[in-house]
Amino acid sequence: MNQTQLHEKYDRISDQFFETLYTYWPPHATRQGFHEYDRSLGRYGRQEIEATLRKMKGLQAELAGIDPQELDHLHALDYPVLATRMKREIYWIEKWRFWERNPLFYKNVIVEGIFNLVSRNFAPLEERLRSLVARERDVPRVLAEARQNLKNPPPEYTRQALDQMKGAVSFFEKLPAEFEVVTDQDLQAEFAAANARVIAELKAFADFLQAELLPASTGKFAIGEAEIQAVIDAEEMIDVPVPEILEILYRDLEAVEAEIRTLGEEIDPGMTTQELIVEMRSRHSAPNKLQEELENECKRIRSYLTEYDFMTIPPEMPDVIVQPMPDYSSGGGAMLTPGPFERVAQESYLKLQIPKPDWTQERIDGLWSDFNHYALVLLVIHECYPGHHTQFYLEKFVPMRASRDHDSDSNSDGWAEYAKFTFVENILAPMDPFYQLAALLSKRSYMAASIAGLEIHLEKRTLEEASDFLMEKQGRTKANTYIWVLNRATYYPTHLTYYIGSKMVRKLREDYQKMKGEAFSLKEFHDRFMSYGLIPIKVIRQDMLGSADDGVLFS
User: Which of 203, 217, 412, 448 is positioned for an S-S bond with 473, CB 3.0–4.6 A?
Assistant: First the structure.
């Protein structure tokens, strides 16, 4: 077989794998920008899942028969990305088994499947409504498959699903307002019937969760060291032993706390660190000026990327649009970007949490404190410039399919955090040391979250103990830290990708700078790193460093 034939075989395997994945999980296809799957939510019966698994394993075996050394550079670079993506998806279905262990899997399929049709203007509204109705008609079957599949989940998972069902019902109750301008009355009637059925089905599913599944939910969420290791290998190609990761986290936590104390003394030796933090958090806009400030900071930080030679920004990259967070969502801020294969809709939205009518004054005050000026700027860097919005836009230019579709969290979250620290160190801290204090506090927060997430799955801390630990290290309320531990850390043990990912990018930069010597340019490093998309950093290291790669991801 000559190289051309080998490339054709590789491309066929890649295409067939993603066709299998998108058929199994159509909401992801919509999110990525492939709209031929928009009229299905997927099929999750055991027979369909087993058939998907067989297809993926067959393609995995075919890929293993190709020697990457016989491929050209682009295919050889894409090869480990496709291989690890196959490994990851097979692991999720066969080993992690969310479809059997977590009722949230089905809620997410339904809500995200519909939301991905509503949130982006990739086709005329009427066309998207027709796809939406088709997906809504899938909901009764998906929930029936859920009832058949779910077996002995952890009680924490079932309670999470119950807690989130009200928000899911509210989403569908408010959905008709998105399509009021559609004039086709027959289509509106079909939508009304399908949407009413979805609401009824979700309420009935909530009753099932409460009456039947919760009493039978005696499973264990903690997965243990071996499974954590398997997850970070399959997801991130991280082979560092979990105990070693914990040692590094504790060592770095101690070091950053010393940095915070030292910086506090430099800013004002007459104030305690806590007094300085209170002072920093008191600097925020009036509530009615919050969105305006965020829009202004987006413009300012974007301009700095060019002014300070941080990286190259294509002038045609759209600006971020700041909007209030939908009332069925939670969190401080979230970035919604077009998928890497989306050809029509280009808008990127930064959703900002705004107080709800039923919030207490204490919660409102806490939000304004969290949204102090410095925290807002860090949010813009992480979510927008040069974080997620910028990286996800540039991902569109990655040539190979598997690499463009990939979404390594230690790359995306790691880059966003690395960029935040580096941007502050090089540009903002010399203007105002409170930026450095805010960045160090953010770093400490992510370290603590990494430790808490790992240790509850290693059964080194209870949920209460993890919450207390976070309360101490993050300066948040016990209620807020417990909600995070319960709703995020139990669900998935690798919140560590934020901080560990940032360490991986920094280690790569240091190794690249050592290799390049006087020819090193921070801007050139950032531009080259971003050209790879969101593939595992281990693969990027091998390509950027070649024989200079020492194989050490972070230390």
Answer: 448
